[in-house]
């Protein structure tokens, strides 16, 4: 969806056809490698979620690209807010009660995720480490199956995007305990935010656009300006909000800062978990 939006707006701005070419596989590594090896002429860009740059380098031993050396940051598209939700079967009503229960029963509570290395996995593991609790990870093939497992009581907790969580929160089938991201306070004014629990939990899932490393700076600057203008358009903002994404227009340097910050944050975490995908 994001790639199609970017392609449409860049096509309108440049008067040239722009195509969103989906290259699935290896958690985005195939698409990233394709762009890293493309000509640096501004005609080939990568639209990606943060894990492609800040988690893949640690879980894929033979990753064919370097997130810092092989790419030129172009623009930050937006940030998604998410929530920690639990099954009513846990019989906890606050994050303090949840932490207390988890500490009293190490590894007894299962948490679901969209897969090993998925943002829903990595953020929960970060929460575990920073709050000193031990939960048992149960990976699923996507967030939808993991939510269904939570509803069935097969897992006790999970972290997911607010858009996916909200119907179940409203139905009372899951209970939100804490939230994070740019819209967290607005959506859940009564809930604590992750950053209130620990200073290193000010996290959100973000989405960016990068170009091959050889792309000239003036081309990057022009693309950045075009994307930022697109993010300010009402139709784009409406579309992003439907997916729980808050637009985040910024300079290329902000995207570069985020990549470096999260590499430093998630690298030690992945290594401590021994998480490797062959």
Topology:
Elements: H1 2-14, H2 29-36, E1 46-49, H3 51-54, H4 56-59, E2 71-80, E3 82-86, H5 95-104, E4 110-113, H6 119-131, E5 136-139, H7 143-152, E6 157-161, H8 162-171, E7 175-180, H9 184-187, H10 194-197, E8 205-212, H11 217-231, H12 234-242, E9 245-247, H13 252-273
Parallel strand pairs: 4-5, 4-6
Antiparallel strand pairs: 1-8, 2-8, 2-9, 3-6, 3-7
Helix pairs in contact: 1-11
Question: What descriptors fit this protein?
Answer:
278 residues; alpha+beta; 5-stranded mixed beta sheet; 4-stranded antiparallel beta sheet
Shape: globular
DSSP strand tally: 9
Which structural class best describes the helix and strand composition? alpha+beta
Q: Helix and strand string, N-terminal first?
A: HHEHHEEHEHEHEHEHHEHHEH
How do the strands line up in the largest sheet?
Answer: 5-4-6-3-7
Q: Enumerate how many helices there are, as a single number.
A: 13
Structure description:
45% of the residues lie in helices and 18% in strands. It has 13 helices and nine strands. The strands form two sheets. A five-stranded mixed β-sheet has the order 5-4-6-3-7. A four-stranded antiparallel β-sheet has the order 1-8-2-9, sandwiched between helices. The model has no long low-confidence stretch (mean pLDDT 93).
